[in-house]
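Second attempt. The first submission of Low molecular weight protein antigen 6 PH domain-containing protein had a stray character pasted in from the spreadsheet, which I only caught after the job came back as garbage. Lesson logged: always re-copy from the clean sequence file. Corrected sequence (203 aa) follows.
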Amino acid sequence: MKQIFRSKTAFVLGWVWLAFVALNVWDLIARYTGKPSLVALAVLAVLTSLVYAIALRPATVFTEEGLLGRNPFRNTFVPWAAIDDVSVSHAIAVRHGDEQVLRLWTPMSSARERAKAQRRGMVPERRGRFQTEPTLPKAEQAAAEAFAGRTHADWVGDQIRERAEKARLRDETAAPVRATWSWDSIVFVAATVVLFVGVVAFG
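This time the job returned cleanly.
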C-alpha cells in the first residue's frame, strides 16, 4: 500500500498560487496590452514552474518495496533493506550504501514547529488550591511527555526506521538504489525560462 507524505503548508500555498495565476492570466488576456502583457505572462509562467518544483512536486512516498524521495529535481528510490540509518533534524536524512545520504525534501520540521510540539508535552503548573484546568490522568500525562518535542518529521522518520528494521529481520536482499532526474520539473522550468527570455528579447 502506497503512502504519500507532503508539506501540507507548501502544498496548500502551491494550489493557492495556481488559483492566483489563473485569475491573473484571465485578466491579462482580457486586457491585453501587447508586450507588457506577454512579459507578465512569461514571469507568471516561470514562477509557476518554480512553485510546482518546490511546493507541489516534493513528496516522501512509502511503497511495499522501498522509500521514494521525490525532491524538486531528483527522484531517489531506496529499498527498505538498503537503509542503514535515519536521523531527523530540520530534514529527514536517510543513510544507505557507502555513506550515501538521501535528504528528504518533505516533511521538514521548523524550529517553530518543534517548539510548539515541545509545549504540547508540558504539563500545566498547578496554581493554588483551585485549579482552572483539569488534571490529566497518569496515562495521558505519560503519553504527552513521550510525544513532547516530536514533530511530523520525527514520526515519519520513525516509520522509515521501523520498515527498514523489519526488512532486515526478514533478511531481504538489498536491491540497488536508483536515482533519476525529475525531467518534468527540469523541462517545465527550462521551457518557461526560455519563453521568458524569448518574450523579453523578441516580443
